[in-house]
Amino acid sequence: MSAVLRPSAAGRVVEVDEFGSNPGGLRMFVYAPPKKLPAGAPLIVVLHGCGQDAGNFARNCGWIALAQRIGAALLLPEQTVKNSSGRCFNWYQPSDIRRGSGEAKSIRQMVRAALVRFKSDPRRVFVVGLSAGGAMAAALLAAYPNVFAAGAVVAGMPVGAAYNGASALLRMRRVDPFSSRRSLAEAVRWAAPKTVRPRVWPRLSIWQGGRDQLVDPRNAEALAAQWTELQGFHANPTSECEPLKGVRHRVWSTPKRAAVELWTIADMGHGFPVDSSASGGGRSGFGVINAGLPAAHHIARFWGIDS
Prior knowledge:
Layout lengths: L13 E3 L10 E5 L11 E5 L6 H8 L1 H8 L2 E6 L15 H4 L4 H17 L6 E6 L1 H12 L6 E5 L10 H9 L7 H11 L11 E7 L8 H13 L8 E6 L2 E7 L4 E8 L6 E3 L13 E3 L4 H9 L4
Parallel strand pairs: 3-4, 3-5, 5-6, 6-7, 7-10, 11-12
Antiparallel strand pairs: 1-2, 2-4, 8-9, 9-10
Helix pairs in contact: 7-8
């Protein structure tokens, strides 16, 4: 691997060469704000979409600005051309999403290394991803439910939706019409460790554009069905509102805890929503859409790390 900047440099996205056996062959980048992080700060894992690089994706989506504002560390795994010609995380390959195997294990090793490096709180580790990165985020929540407190999936896929490249393309274009809430939830339980059942499953924020031409928007509905059934909710949300025209926000919650939320943006295509007019709200770029809604802010608020 080529020489890189010192991984201890604050205020810059830098690469970390040594973090474990790295069976998935991924690259590890990190970011910490210039101001010294307090002990126990959150750690946010940000997974880019196909054809994107980790640093620019985190910057454009507003995650770097948010990390500066709230005092959080970012872990930014990056896919390589060697693993995927399109630089997509292999969210559908059983060997890459299985606990203790492939890309999933590489990211778990990165989390462990980042927790030590930044002295982050292991109870406040979160993961968010777009498209293939979003599907990988969901897979990580299933494989390592006790590692992540919560996650967010933007234009992603349900856990277990595909098992090879052909089925991945099929399900991206058309949601599985035969899956039920029960079978969707069972796919997560099957992927979870058999000897370690979580007391409470990670919370999940889901985002989807209604005009997405790459991922059938109904996959977001299936993902919501999967995680609400898993956490014991009925199909109907606990609350629903329209915060902006064409934006639908549904929440499944108990009096003490919001477990799942689903944001659908009717006029948005395939990408991560930002609001370039808001301070720290992100900026448009490849796979990042100025939708007038800063998803990073709302996700962090749902996670409970941003007021």
